[in-house]
Amino acid sequence: MIIRPIATEKAVKLIELENTLLFEVDRRKNKTKIKKEIEKLFNVKVERIRTHTRKNKKLAYIKLDKKNPAIDLATKLGMM
């Protein structure tokens, strides 16, 4: 369901300023399914999800709870 993490300049800025990670996800999945998978895979608490579909790709902006720093997860994923 999660295809890959996105590590652009904008994504890194989101990690640092808003505690938000950016992933490319399967277009057929909805926000609740994405949230459950992120929480299960990475053992974090998700506060909010925004999705954006463009050029046949679906991007999910995942805002983590303040107790779970996004920079720690990004480091584990090799984004930083």
Q: How is the topology of this model organized?
A:
Layout (H helix, E strand, L loop, with lengths): L1 E4 L3 H10 L1 E6 L5 H12 L3 E9 L2 E8 L5 H8 L3
Antiparallel strand pairs: 1-2, 2-4, 3-4
How many distinct beta strands?
Answer: 4
CATH top level? Answer: Alpha Beta
What is the CATH architecture assignment? 2-Layer Sandwich
The shape is globular
Approximate strand percentage? 25-35%
Annotated CATH homologous superfamily: RRM (RNA recognition motif) domain
Order of helices and strands: EHEHEEH
| Unreliable parts | none
Backbone structural class: alpha+beta
In the residues, how many domains can be counted?
Answer: 1
Helical fraction equals 25-40%
First-last Cα distance: 23 Å
Describe the structure.
The protein has 80 residues and is an alpha+beta fold. The chain has one domain (2-77): Alpha-Beta Plaits. Helices cover 38% and strands 34% of the residues. It contains three helices and four strands, in the order βαβαββα. A four-stranded antiparallel β-sheet has the order 1-2-4-3. A hairpin with a 2-residue loop joins β3 (46-54) and β4 (57-64). The chain starts with a strand and ends with a helix. The model has no long low-confidence stretch (mean pLDDT 94).
